[in-house]
Automatic annotation (TrEMBL):
Keywords: Hydrolase, Metal-binding. The keyword Hydrolase applies. This is Putative hydrolases of HD superfamily. The keyword Hydrolase applies. It comes from Lutimaribacter saemankumensis. Pfam families: HD_3.
């Protein structure tokens, strides 16, 4: 695909991606003024990668991590956001997200669709150092926003320390141990003070 048809396909994808701004998440902004949307979350995670990249273990390619983080939640346009502390059918969510990825990345020219979908799939599998660091950042941001906002989404979802440590601690410790070492005492102190 070349010329105007290629640009038409790229613009269709970018126009569709704008819908991510309408997907509301359970986590609030740091100032607790309102819930963040998924586009804000993706941007904030890309900034996290840029600023915190020095804490990535090993040979992590921060440029690839940023690409993954900009793409990782596009499927929420169709599948919606599932709160990290909520009860969900993980198999049903995964199937819904796969269908969404097929549709959304399928809007692009074939070469870009293949490349960007591969980055999304890599993030989802979380088997490479780049994907593990990206996944760690995806789990690192919500507790920090909860700590800044007084734990609003933890309180709204009846999150327990065990649930928080399981849902966010495991992936953070796997992909960014230094970040887990920094945030874990803060999370534990918040729950201990309740």
């Amino acid at each position: 695909m070349t010329g105007p048809a290629r640009l038409d396909a790229q613009m269709a994808f970018l126009t569709e991606a704008c819908r991510l701004k309408s997907v509301t998440r359970a986590t609030t902004l740091c100032d607790a003024s309102r819930p963040e949307n998924s586009a804000e979350h993706s941007w904030h995670l890309a900034l996290y990668a840029l600023v915190l990249g020095e804490h990535a273990p090993g040979d992590v390619d921060i440029a690839r991590v940023i690409k993954m983080l900009l793409l990782h939640d596009l499927v929420e346009i169709d599948a919606g956001d599932n709160p990290i502390y909520g009860q969900v059918d993980h198999a049903a969510v995964a199937a819904s997200e796969q269908e969404a990825a097929d549709r959304i990345f399928g809007l692009l020219p074939a070469d870009q669709a293949t490349d960007l979908r591969a980055l999304w799939d890599e993030f989802e599998a979380a088997q490479t150092p780049d994907a593990q660091f990206a996944k760690a950042l995806d789990r690192f941001q919500p507790p920090n926003q909860n700590l800044a906002s007084g734990g609003i989404s933890w309180l709204e979802h009846d999150a327990t320390l065990d649930k928080v440590e399981t849902r966010v601690g495991t992936p953070i410790a796997r992909g960014a141990p230094a970040l887990w070492d920094w945030v874990a005492p803060r999370i534990r102190a918040w729950f201990a003070a309740r």
